[in-house]
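Appendix B. Raw example, untouched.
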Amino acid sequence: MQNYGKVSIITPTYNCSRYIGETIEGVLAQTYHDWELLITDDLSTDDTVKIVQSYAEKDDRIKLLAMDENKGAGFARNKSIERATGRYIAFCDGDDVWMPHKLEKQLEYMQENNAVLCHSSYLKFDENSKVFGIVVCHKKETFDTMKYDDGMGFLTVIYDTQKLPKQLMPLMRKRQDWAYKLIMMRDGAVSYGMIEPLAYYRIGQASLSKNKVGLVKYNINVYKETLGYSTIRAYLTFAFGFMPKHLLKLLRLKIINAHF
C-alpha cells in the first residue's frame, strides 16, 4: 500500500466511556496504518480516560491529553490540533466510528484529484449502534455552498496541511465545526465528496442535532462571529439562504432514506 504521509486524527472526548472503545477500535482497524490518534479529554467524570489509557499503553500511536478544566469540544480539538505532527488532519469524535477503508480510500482519492479537502457520505446509528439512515453528501462543496448549510459531516473531513495551513478551531461552544470549515474554505479551498459512506455518526436521545430550533441562535452566531456579518444580515442570511437550502436537504435525505 502506498504511504501518502501521516494522518493526525483529532478526537475530543467527554463522558463517552460507553462508546470510546468502539471509536478507537475503528481507528485501529484502518487499512492505512500511518496515523496518530490525538485524544483530548475534556475533564470526563466517567471512565473515559481510563479506557483511553488502556489502549494507549498497547499502541503508541494513541496519545492522550487529559485536561484539568472543562472548556468544550472546540478547545479540546485545538489541543489535539496543536500537537498534530501529520501531513493530514482528520476528525472523529469519541462516539463516532470509521469504516476500515476510510483513510485509505480518501487519501487515494485526494491524490488522484489533487484535493485539498475531502469528505464523504456517512451512516447514522443510534446509542445501541443500530444503523437507521444515511446522509449522502454532494460531490463538491465550496465556501458559497457551505455558508448556506453545512454539507460536510465533520467525522468524514480530512485536509492536507501542505496545501492548506493547519487551522485552529474558533472557541465557540456550538457549531464550531461548521465555523471551522467556513474558515478553511473562505479563501477558495474546495472540498470533494466521496458518495460512498465511510463512517458512522452516532445520534443519541439528547443530541443537539435533533433540536433544530435550539440551533438557530448558534447558526446566527457563526454568521456574526466567523463571517463578520451584522445582526440584520445574519438573520436575513439564515432566513433566506440557510433555511431554504436546509429544508431542501432534509427533503432530499427523506426521499433517499425512504428506500434505505
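End of appendix B.
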